[in-house]
């Protein structure tokens, strides 16, 4: 099926010695010349693709071509640019299963969720098509006679996209579809764990471009490479915005580089998401939301539920139901029907989970369910783990960290103000939720003194955001917003224009400045 999608997209990708091209620029492709980079499918840890590292010269050449293509692309009217995205959207619909297949193969998420990710790709395309006719600026009242003030939004130039393994297509689509309708060209460095997803998306876009003979070919590129290659992109003044999705560690590194050259940055970093279950909550609904948020994508979503604050009056009931539900989670090959949890991404990830489990017991926590590696009825080689439930007290240091694995900490609370304060007491600020039937509790949680996160939900879990809203978080999560609402403004530059049609030259603030 993997080779199928590439055939459908008109390319026999495998070149010399089973090595894939590392660099895709418009309809050209080139092999890297450096060391080998091998991706393994988390399903069984078998080799899924091999690339070679590209050189700095190759990267700079791509960036130069993107800058040149941008001169033409930015002059194509935005609604026409939107037409390209409409065709991309149709192709993604047509190839939904093939695209989802590659996502499952490379990221290990279950096929159902992989299809959901492609749907997110489609949704953001549709959003971008509408947006292409709505890149509105303001008109502003001028204080001066016969003057007009207005705001215009212009394309930025070339956007560098760096993405994480866990949403290998959707995150690109959030960035790329909006960046393109805004008149920018794009360079994408995907996670080295999910390179084929990136290649497939780029080829899909190229296929759509075939229908637009007057459009420049070099508006999109993919560079498969290591962090070092990511840094070459980040350092280059040829990129007018770096939009990076990944860990806080990566964000800090990139922020230092981009800030040093006074460049623009959009960061979507790690989360440490919490949910509060109050005594009035509908416990059945809460349970379903907890299960999807904590166990979905094997706990490897940036919005995965990590901390659960349960009121003391309902704690035992919630824990009993959760243990029962966790026991019935089917773990195994993510391509198989009825499997709810696939593998975690790598051995390294598993090691980090084991370290976290040790710290939990050292810090007074208790593992009440799970934590073991699963080896029966799962494909050999992959790292399959039991989803894990932990009871722990607020104040344990482990609660400050995002462990990218299915570990859920349960913490008891007595009054809502304390629970909100605990929700806010971590460095990250991505997603949060409350389950309550009490309007006062819901309002408090969503108010200025409520959750300090970028996503604040009522009677909905922490994961599974819609593309229409601005997606992102505060504090160490980086403060960036992607996808819906007015996130498009990050991909454009604002010009304030003042137009004088008075025949005189009055200065603002009434200043007199005449030669007498
Ligand atoms: P990661 O930080 O290891 O890698 C993310 C990307 O950054 C990869 O492409 C990697 O090659 C690149 N990278 C790393 N260091 C770099 C550097 N110095 N210069 C340039 N590029 C560099 O993250 P991961 O393990 O792939 O993904 C998991 C993390 O991503 C989690 O922390 C998760 O919460 C976060 N994430 C956040 C969001 C969000 O929207 N907030 C979405 C998805 C994932």
Largest sheet: 7 strands, mixed
Anisotropy-based shape: globular
Main structural class = alpha/beta
| CATH architecture annotation of the largest domain | 3-Layer(aba) Sandwich
What is the CATH top level name of the largest domain?
Answer: Alpha Beta
- CATH fold descriptor of the largest domain: Aldehyde Dehydrogenase, Chain A, domain 1
Helix content: 25-40%
Radius of gyration: 25 Å
Amino- and carboxy-terminal Cα gap: 82 Å
Placed side by side, the strands forming the largest sheet appear as: 2-1-9-8-7-10-11
Strand content: 15-25%
Structure explained in plain terms:
The chain is of the alpha/beta class and 516 residues long. The chain folds into 2 domains: 10-269 and 478-495, Aldehyde Dehydrogenase, Chain A, domain 1 (3-Layer(aba) Sandwich), CATH 3.40.605.10; 273-466, 3-Layer(aba) Sandwich (Aldehyde Dehydrogenase, Chain A, domain 2). The protein is built from 14 helices and 25 strands. The strands form 7 sheets. It has a 7-stranded mixed sheet, sandwiched between helices. Helix 3 runs antiparallel to helix 5, helix 3 (78-94) packs across helix 7 and helix 5 packs parallel to helix 6 (170-181). The longest helix has 21 residues, at 111-131. The termini are far apart. The mean pLDDT is 96. Bound molecules: nicotinamide-adenine-dinucleotide (NAD). Nicotinamide-adenine-dinucleotide is lined by residues 162-167, 189-192, 227, 230-231, 234, 245-247, 250, 253-254, 268-271, 302, 402, 404, 430, 477.
């Amino acid at each position: 099926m993997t080779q199928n999608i590439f055939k459908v997209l008109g390319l026999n990708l495998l070149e010399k010695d089973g090595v894939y091209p590392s660099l895709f620029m418009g309809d050209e492709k080139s092999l890297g010349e450096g060391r080998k980079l091998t991706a393994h499918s988390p399903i069984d840890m078998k080799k899924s693709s091999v690339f070679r590292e590209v050189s700095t010269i190759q990267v700079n050449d791509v960036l130069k071509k993107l800058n040149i293509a941008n001169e033409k692309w930015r002059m194509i009217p935005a609604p026409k640019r939107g037409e390209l995205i409409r065709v991309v959207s149709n192709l993604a619909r047509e190839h939904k299963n093939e695209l989802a297949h590659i996502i499952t193969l490379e990221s290990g998420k279950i096929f159902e969720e992989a299809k959901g990710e492609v749907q997110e790709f489609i949704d953001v395309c549709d959003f971008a098509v509408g947006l292409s006719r709505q890149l509105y600026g303001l008109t502003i009242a001028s204080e001066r006679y016969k003057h007009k003030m207005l705001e215009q939004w212009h394309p930025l130039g070339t956007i560098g996209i760096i993405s994480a393994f866990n949403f290998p297509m959707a995150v690109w689509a959030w960035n790329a579809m909006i960046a393109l309708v805004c008149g920018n060209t794009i360079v994408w460095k995907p996670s080295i764990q999910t390179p084929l997803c990136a290649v497939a998306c780029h080829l899909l876009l190229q296929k759509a471009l075939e229908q637009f003979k007057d459009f420049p070919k070099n508006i999109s590129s993919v560079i498969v490479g290591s962090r070092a290659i990511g840094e070459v992109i980040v350092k280059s003044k040829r990129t007018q915005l770096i939009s990076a999705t990944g860990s806080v560690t990566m964000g800090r590194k990139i922020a230092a580089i981009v800030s040093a050259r006074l460049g623009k940055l959009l960061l979507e970093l790690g989360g440490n998401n919490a949910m509060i279950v109050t005594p009035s909550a509908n416990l059945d609904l809460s349970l379903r939301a907890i299960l999807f948020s904590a166990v979905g994508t094997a706990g490897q979503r940036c919005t995965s539920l990590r901390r659960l604050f349960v009121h003391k009056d309902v704690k035992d009931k919630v824990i009993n139901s959760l243990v029962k539900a966790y026991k019935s989670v089917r773990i195994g090959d993510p391509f198989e029907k009825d499997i709810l949890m696939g593998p975690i991404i790598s051995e390294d990830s598993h090691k980090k989970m084991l370290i976290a489990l040790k710290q939990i017991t050292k810090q007074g926590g208790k593992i009440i369910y799970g934590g073991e590696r699963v080896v029966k009825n799962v494909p050999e080689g992959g790292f399959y783990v039991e989803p894990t439930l932990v009871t722990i007290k607020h104040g344990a240091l482990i609660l400050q960290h995002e462990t990218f694995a299915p570990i859920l900490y349960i913490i008891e609370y007595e009054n809502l103000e304390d629970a909100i304060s605990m929700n806010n007491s971590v460095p990250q600020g991505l997603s949060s939720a409350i389950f309550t039937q009490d309007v006062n509790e819901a309002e408090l949680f969503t108010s200025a003194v409520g959750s300090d996160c970028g996503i604040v939900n009522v009677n909905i879990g922490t994961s599974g955001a819609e593309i229409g809203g601005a997606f992102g978080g505060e504090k160490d999560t980086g403060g960036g917003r992607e996808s819906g609402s007015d996130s498009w403004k990050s991909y454009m530059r604002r010009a304030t224009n003042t137009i004088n049609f008075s025949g005189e030259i009055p200065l603002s603030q009434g200043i007199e400045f005449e030669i007498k």
